[in-house]
């Protein structure tokens, strides 16, 4: 019986002009999106080529040099490429992909793509995630806004009800038929994406399971939208009204709510300005140990402590270069300061996230947006993760260089030059993003929110159609 | 006829809950957006004020220190921070180069969430080492801000669509059109009147709320009446465009649902599609070269110059004999060498930087032409420009900061090379940064294009109506 | 041809035809909805058009209203070609469709005020109330909103509109279908009153009994052609029914 309903509804949908128009919109958007993604693919690859080969080569071929000069010369940490980022770019456009690692300073990832674009890019880009997040729900609305109102307007509802079909079966049939076109489109899209991405040998590690997780999130999203659209259709008296209300929900959920959330988050838990942040860090650095300043109080204290520890009374008698040792201690101290201040930022974002999650109560878009980015490893959390890994690598590098200096020279010997192999022996920066199960574990509350949306919307639909 | 139409349209509007809801939506959204704008502008002003106060306090302290040094006391400072050294002052007492918000900054957040609004270039800085990107949560950047520009560009058209999609079709569907069409009047004019009445209703509400928002934001109407009027005219012209679309679609004589769909499709095309495609085109035509490559070049350059610092200093002093101090030949400090090579790096880097700025500028110029493909782009670009938050404004600010950084350097370099000490008297001669905001935004062409759009669409609607009338599809379907 | 409304009769007097069609034809592709139709309705006459669904009755009325344009031939109201000056011709007529729809959120008086207003007539509130009462609406219904009105009540507003506009021509498309017998009877009485005042009425209907009781003339249409046209007084109700059925079957027998 349900099969019959699905067939009838699908026939109506396919025979309608709206379906053809929608199909046309989606296909043309997807072509543009694929073009945009392939551009992104090419650009990232070029950047990587530049980065990986040249950057490491530069570092390796420094020749004989004082380790601390090498530390100032610095090196770069590059974000790995994630195949799913070609589907969902997430916040990558706003975070930048490389971090400069040098002595004494924790740098932010620099040169985000957004800062290098004109204001037009703020309208949004035609990427696959744009189509998946904004356009597909719209297609659902356009296809099924009149699922119930057409029966009311055409008077067929009376005939239908007189056939003795249970309302939930009728509703379920209509629900499946409304969902079907978008699910078919999404399945094709993800299938093609899977085949293309699994064949990219030079773009990170592709996992079918992650792709499937991403696919599942979107399918649930479409289920929610279908339920909402049908719910509105079952409550509205006229098709026109049903359409306009559904569109309002779409606009509110996908456009307004995220912006409202972002404004509230910024209002309640603002980030410091870049200048404030730097100055706070500088201020604390000034108070503490500075590897370049042997005269400060902190430096004197360290001297005393080390002399006592080694039971000698002059720095020259130490079995290592105390200057380099002090440099390392200063480095560690500064790293602590950075860590503290970045923790404050992270705390602030955690608070902001709370706001995003509470606004998700009025927008099914938000949980999906966050989940999709997380699975694609293009969310803010992964960026933090990467930045922390880069920072740890920086600290390790400093330790490696200062150790080398301390071991191989005497106190106050700044002329020491490490041999040219030293640089090659520094292990390369490796970063592997969190694995899928960890991502999902981290996002349980968001997943629950999404399932809550599914439950509420479909529950409301079946309740409202109980008495048609 | 017009009077009656007006009177009853108003009555219908007032009795129509739908329209009341829509009006309330506009009011709430605009007020909320205006409030958000105020928050952002207030924070920006507060940030600038804080830093200015802080700097003037530090300055007082520095002057006191200079006094005590003059009187022969020692000050509790690291050697390289003592303010008698010009480099210490140049590095540890930089000025604030602030970009004060424009009077209309609250209208559009634009690029203001991406970039900082004040910076303090040190004497060692150059145009590439001064960081201009703001520390904002990228999630916030991704979602964007709920500002007036958003309400006007995205929401207002949707409200207009909801307001007008069924003017004719509703009469047709409810059956009252038959009686109406049997009256001695032209249906086309009747629809036009209804559209115009609704247009005036919405324009009235919009102008009222906008004025309230401007008042809330303490906008000085007496000084900037022109800017306010331009903003209103722009918004009204944009609304006119959407009303024209709605009018034309109504005249096509399809059902309410079809009208809503067509109008929504056009909304997607004008507000989402065309801007995205234009953005993509402009960055395809003038791609920004790889930043990674730039960073590498920069470091190579630095490494190169560091190696040759002594030679560079010699050359520099040969070129600038005025800096070679005669009495103290041997005394070349780290700073002497550093600043001399910094010069060279600066010159080279500015060439590099020009490549990026040049591409960005070309992109921007292209968009200035592309904007006429969609009224949404026109309005976005104009509102950003009026608010002083467009990419161009920030580029302009960056350039001003760069040239101020140069001035700051030029102030200290002679002192450095002549091995002179910094004194209290020189404090008054510090170069000062004043942000020069762009001149007024002219919107005449933009309005003209919007009006042209409106006329064109109206004519298309007219033509469709005549065709339908011939086929007898206007009243009967 | 008939470019004005003055037609010379045998008695050499000029009689005013309010509704006239000459060779009026409307084709939709190969389908001929109205075929060479000649109609004349004078002041004070009521012509009832009978015929099955699709016979061309509604199309004729739509042509007279210029809702659709004729393929050939002419339709005139008060002697004016409806395609040439539709707005002028509409000022003489009132049209009451099968299901007269008004603005549900406006009251009867307000609806009437609106429709007369946009027709270019300024009429005082009290005068409008009188017209509505004249059309048979109950006093307490005058200021009620239309959404609570029955079809019969809405049609009374339509008649009131005709009265208020001082209409010369009344075009009715199956106005009594779906009305209860009492309302239907009241409506007929109203039409008779209008016709007594000199209004020319063209009414398309399925109701033979009603046509016989109020029509001054009866025409029977089939496949867009006017088959019979005669004075009502010349025929009994039984005769009318016989003639009607005969006309309807004519073609089928021939086939």
Task: Give a description of the structure.
The complex is a heterotrimer of chains A (468), B (477) and C (255). By secondary structure, chain A is an all-alpha fold. Chain A is built from 17 helices and three strands. Chain A has one domain (2-271, 339-464). Chain A has a three-stranded antiparallel beta sheet with strand order 1-2-3. In chain A, strand 2 and strand 3 (105-106) form a beta hairpin. In chain A, helix 9 packs antiparallel against helix 14, helix 9 (208-235) packs parallel to helix 17 and helix 10 (239-268) packs antiparallel against helix 13. The model of chain A has no long low-confidence stretch (mean pLDDT 86). Chain B is 70% helix and 1% strand. Chain B has helices at 2-15, 17-70, 86-92, 138-143, 148-164, 167-174, 176-181, 187-216, 221-251, 256-285, 291-307, 309-319, 334-370, 375-387, 391-417, 444-471; strands at residues 97-98, 118-119. Chain B is elongated and about 100 Å long. The two termini of chain B are 26 Å apart. The mean pLDDT of chain B is 85. Chain C has 255 residues and is an alpha/beta fold. Chain C has a domain at 93-167. In chain C, 35% of the residues lie in helices and 27% in strands. Chain C is built from eight helices and eleven strands. Chain C has a six-stranded mixed beta sheet with strand order 7-8-9-4-10-11, with helices on both faces. In chain C, strands 1, 2, 3, 5 and 6 form a five-stranded antiparallel beta sheet that branches. In chain C, a hairpin with a 2-residue loop joins strand 5 (72-77) and strand 6 (80-81). In chain C, helix 4 (125-134) crosses helix 5. Classes of the chains: A mainly alpha (468), B mainly alpha (477), C alpha/beta (255). Chains A and B meet through helix 2, helix 4, helix 5, helix 10 and helix 11 of A and helix 2, strand 2, helix 4, helix 5 and helix 10 of B.
């Amino acid at each position: 019986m349900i099969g019959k309903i699905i067939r009838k509804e699908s026939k109506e949908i396919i025979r309608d002009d709206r379906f053809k128009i929608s199909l046309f919109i989606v296909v043309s958007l997807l072509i543009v999106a694929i073009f945009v993604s392939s551009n992104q693919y090419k650009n990232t690859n070029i950047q990587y080529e530049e980065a990986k080969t040249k950057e490491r080569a530069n570092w390796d071929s420094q020749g004989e040099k004082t380790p601390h000069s090498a530390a100032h010369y610095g090196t770069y940490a590059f974000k790995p490429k994630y195949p799913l980022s070609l589907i969902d770019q997430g916040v990558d456009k706003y975070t930048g992909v490389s971090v400069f690692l040098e002595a004494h300073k924790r740098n932010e990832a620099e040169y985000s793509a957004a800062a290098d674009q004109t204001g037009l890019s703020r309208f949004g880009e035609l990427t696959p995630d744009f189509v998946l997040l904004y356009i597909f729900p719209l297609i659902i609305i356009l296809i099924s806004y009149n699922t119930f109102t057409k029966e009311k307007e055409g008077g067929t509802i009376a005939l239908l009800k007189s056939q003795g079909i249970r309302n939930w079966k009728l509703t379920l049939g209509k629900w499946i038929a409304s969902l079907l076109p978008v699910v078919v489109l999404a399945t094709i899209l993800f299938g093609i994406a899977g085949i293309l991405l699994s064949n990219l040998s030079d773009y990170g590690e592709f996992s079918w399971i992650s792709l499937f997780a991403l696919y599942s999130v979107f399918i649930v999203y479409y289920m929610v939208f279908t339920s909402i659209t049908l719910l509105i259709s079952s409550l509205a008296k006229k098709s026109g009204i049903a359409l306009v209300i559904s569109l309002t929900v779409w606009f509110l959920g996908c456009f307004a709510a995220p912006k409202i959330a972002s404004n509230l988050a910024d209002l309640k838990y603002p980030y410091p300005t870049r200048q404030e942040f730097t100055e706070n860090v500088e201020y604390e650095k000034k108070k503490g140990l500075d590897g370049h300043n042997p005269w400060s109080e902190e430096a004197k204290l360290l001297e005393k402590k080390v002399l006592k520890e080694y039971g000698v009374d002059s720095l020259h008698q130490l079995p290592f270069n105390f200057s380099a040792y002090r440099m390392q201690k200063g480095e560690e101290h500064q790293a602590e300061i950075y860590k503290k201040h970045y923790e404050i930022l992270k705390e602030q974002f955690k608070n902001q996230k709370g706001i995003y999650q509470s606004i998700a109560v009025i927008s099914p878009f938000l949980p999906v947006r966050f989940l999709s980015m997380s699975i694609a490893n293009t969310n803010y959390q992964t960026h933090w993760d990467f930045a922390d890994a880069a920072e740890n690598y920086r600290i390790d590098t400093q330790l490696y260089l200062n150790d080398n200096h301390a071991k191989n020279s005497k106190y106050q010997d700044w002329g020491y030059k490490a041999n040219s192999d030293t640089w090659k022996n520094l292990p390369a920066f490796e970063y592997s993003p969190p694995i899928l199960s960890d991502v999902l574990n981290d996002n349980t509350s968001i997943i629950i929110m999404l399932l809550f949306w599914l439950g509420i919307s479909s529950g409301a639909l079946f309740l409202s159609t109980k008495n048609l | 006829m017009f009077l009656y139409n007006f009177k009853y349209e108003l009555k219908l509007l007032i009795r129509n809950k739908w329209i009341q809801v829509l009006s309330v939506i506009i009011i709430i959204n605009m007020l909320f957006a205006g409030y958000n704008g105020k928050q952002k502008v207030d924070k920006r002003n507060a940030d600038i004020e804080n830093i200015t106060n802080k700097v003037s306090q530090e300055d007082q302290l520095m002057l006191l220190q200079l006094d005590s040094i003059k009187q022969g006391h020692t000050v509790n400072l690291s050697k390289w921070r003592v303010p008698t050294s010009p480099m210490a002052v140049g590095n540890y007492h930089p000025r604030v180069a602030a970009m004060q918000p424009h009077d209309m900054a609250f209208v559009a957040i634009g690029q203001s969430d991406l970039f900082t609004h004040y910076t303090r270039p040190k004497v060692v800085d150059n145009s590439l080492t001064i960081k201009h990107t703001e520390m904002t949560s990228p999630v916030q950047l991704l979602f964007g801000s709920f500002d007036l520009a958003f309400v006007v560009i995205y929401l207002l058209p949707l409200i207009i669509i909801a307001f007008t999609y069924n003017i004719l079709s509703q009469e047709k569907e409810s059956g009252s059109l038959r009686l109406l069409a049997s009256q001695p009047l032209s249906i086309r004019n009747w629809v036009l009147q209804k559209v115009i009445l609704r247009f005036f209703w919405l324009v009235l509400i919009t102008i009222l709320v906008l004025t309230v928002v401007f008042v809330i934001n303490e906008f000085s109407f007496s000084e900037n009446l022109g800017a306010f009027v331009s903003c209103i005219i722009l918004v009204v012209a944009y609304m006119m465009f959407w009303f024209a679309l709605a009018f034309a679609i109504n005249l096509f004589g399809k059902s309410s649902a079809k009208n809503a769909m067509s109008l929504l499709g056009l909304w997607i095309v004008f507000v989402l599609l065309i801007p995205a495609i234009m953005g993509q085109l402009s960055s395809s035509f003038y791609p920004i070269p790889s930043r990674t490559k730039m960073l590498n070049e920069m470091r190579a350059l630095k490494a190169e110059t560091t190696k040759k610092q002594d030679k560079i200093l010699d050359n520099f002093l040969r070129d600038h004999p005025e800096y070679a101090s005669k009495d103290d030949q041997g005394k070349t400090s780290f700073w002497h060498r550093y600043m001399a090579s910094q010069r060279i790096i600066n010159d080279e880097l500015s060439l590099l930087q020009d490549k990026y700025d040049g591409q960005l500028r070309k992109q921007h110029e292209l968009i200035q032409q592309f904007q006429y493909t969609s009224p949404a782009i026109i309005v976005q670009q104009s509102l950003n420009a009026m608010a002083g938050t467009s990419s161009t404004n920030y580029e302009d600010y960056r350039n001003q900061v760069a040239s101020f950084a140069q001035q700051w350097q030029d102030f200290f370099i002679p002192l450095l090379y002549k091995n002179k000490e910094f004194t209290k008297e020189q404090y008054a001669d510090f170069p000062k940064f004043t942000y020069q905001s762009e001149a007024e935004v002219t919107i005449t062409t933009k309005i003209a294009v919007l009006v042209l759009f409106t006329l064109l669409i109206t004519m298309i609607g007219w033509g469709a109506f005549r065709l339908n009338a011939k086929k007898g599809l206007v009243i009967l379907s | 041809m008939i470019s004005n409304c003055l037609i010379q009769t045998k008695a050499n007097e000029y009689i005013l035809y309010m509704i006239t069609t000459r060779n009026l034809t409307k084709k939709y592709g190969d389908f001929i909805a109205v075929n060479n139709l000649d109609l004349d309705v004078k002041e004070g006459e009521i012509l009832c058009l009978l015929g099955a669904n699709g016979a061309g009755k509604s199309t004729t009325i739509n042509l007279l209203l210029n809702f659709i344009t004729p393929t050939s031939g002419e339709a005139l109201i008060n002697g004016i070609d409806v395609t040439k000056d539709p707005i002028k011709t509409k000022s003489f007529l009132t049209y009451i469709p099968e299901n007269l729809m008004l603005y549900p959120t406006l009251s009867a008086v307000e609806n009437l005020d609106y429709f007369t207003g946009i027709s270019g007539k300024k009429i005082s509130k009290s005068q409008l109330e009188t017209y509505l009462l004249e059309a048979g609406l109950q006093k307490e219904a005058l200021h009620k909103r239309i959404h609570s009105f029955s079809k019969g009540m809405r049609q009374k507003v339509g008649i009131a509109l005709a009265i208020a506009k001082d209409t010369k021509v009344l075009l009715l498309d199956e106005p009594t279908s779906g009305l209860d017998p009492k309302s239907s009877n009241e409506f007929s009485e109203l039409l008779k009153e209008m016709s007594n005042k000199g209004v020319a009425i063209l009414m398309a209907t399925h109701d033979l009994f009603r046509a016989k009781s109020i029509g001054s003339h009866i025409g029977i249409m089939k496949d867009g052609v006017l088959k019979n046209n005669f004075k009502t007084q010349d025929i009994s109700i039984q005769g009318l029914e016989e003639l009607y059925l005969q006309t309807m079957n004519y073609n089928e027998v021939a086939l």
